[in-house]
Design a protein that fits this description.
Blueprint lengths: L4 E2 L7 H7 L33 E5 L8 E9 L5 E10 L2 E5 L2 E3 L11 E5 L13 E5 L12 E9 L8 E10 L9 E9 L8 E9 L14 E7 L7 E3 L19 E6 L6 E2 L1 E6 L2 E5 L9 E9 L8 E2 L3 E5 L5 E2 L10 E3 L17 E2 L3 E7 L4 E2 L13 E2 L3 E5 L2 E2 L5 E6 L7 E6 L7 E9 L2 E2 L5 E5 L2
Parallel strand pairs: 24-34
Antiparallel strand pairs: 1-11, 2-3, 3-9, 4-5, 4-8, 4-10, 6-9, 7-8, 10-11, 12-13, 13-18, 14-17, 15-16, 15-19, 17-18, 19-20, 19-21, 22-25, 23-25, 25-31, 26-27, 28-29, 28-32, 30-31, 32-33, 32-34
Amino acid sequence: MVSWRTMIAPFLLPVALLATANGGPWGRTGAFGEPTCESSGCHRNEPLGPGRGTVTIDVGPYVPGEKQRVRVTIADAAASAWGYQLSARLARNTQQPAGTFSIAQSGGADDLFSWIHCASGSLPPCGSSEIQYVTHTSVGSRLNTRSGFTTFFIDWTAPSDNVGDIIFAAAGLAADGDQGTNGDRTYTTTVLSLYAPSNQPTLRDGGVVNAASFAQGAPVSPGTLVSLFGDKLGPPNFSRIVARSDLDPVTGKLPLELNRIGVDFFAPGQDPVPAYMLFVSDRQLNVQVPALAVTLPARVEVQPVFNRGQGRNEVRGNRVTVNVQGVSPALFTFPDGKSAAAVDQGGVPIGRVGLFPNSRPARSGDVILVYGTGFGASTPPVEPGVLATGVALLNATVSVRLGTQFLASSNVLYAGAAPSFAGLQQFNIRIPTGLGSGDLPLVISAGPFDSQPGVTLRVEGP
């Protein structure tokens, strides 16, 4: 996952802001040889020490001369005031600017949260070789806002020609709001924007698979967690997992884009339906299949897209086909690829000794939790993209086979949505006596459909 650390843009106190016209001193992104406001002394994290926050930049590939909206998000559970500084430069010469920034004109409060300055100290327009910096305003610092994260939006117009890769660098400030310089944490990050015409995302043929089984050619189903494999699905060596700050602020659903990449499902005769994003990297995407208004089973097309709905900035990749049916059960495994992803009620991994530092076999009488995806709808329903909040039992008839035995229904204590997750199912299973010892095959079925073969659970007799 992309590593995010240290940041900038001094959060200036209300009184100080009156004298400094918002934001902090220029050249504090923490990249290109620049310090941050922490390392230069205007904000210090002591006495609290390093925090566990992040700063992220959402920007897609660029189409020459086109404008797109850039999002900077700072996350820190302890912060109550916020700031940032952002710049864009040519990767081949980081002393040269790349494109120009402008204040977002959305008609909302976001338009007041940022302002732009030239490296020389003047306001735009800046010289053709002069770096532009974007930073927060006094309004944008949102003093006493304890949301755990905050976002800034700024418009960026790409250079008029192909200039190669462009580096965006941001430093984000998570301040404690006490109007002092201590206890304020900074985080930094960089991300690439690539030349869109030669960096279209590409999915491999057959590259859409159940995220638990990775079974080639196997069908998926609405609500299932799936992995998509391909090339140029993000900047080189980039990865990012969904965070709370990415959830829809109104519905609480998973986002339809992450780092400006999304995935569309095309059912026959239907408009494209966006999937819900959980993870992006340059070669893999993890998403949740959306609800599809089509009679199942069906054959649908899947397509990656950058900057969805942003006019000429929208960049679409190839389409691949996948079969969709009502259920497509599969069990997650630990990194060895065969041990079922299972824990006891205290969270201790169930598996052979040494699989993890604290792993242990299951024993008769234990209640273990096993995780999977693709087991179908539940009651009450949990729509795709929604994080489950309570008990939601699977509608399909569930059976569990461990070793050579089908477990009695009294030993399947729960089969339903995993709380606080989207697309994940949880099975609470009591281990009966008489199973024997060893790595026993584990299969969980939804109606007539079985989870993938080859998954085992380590059991210690009797």
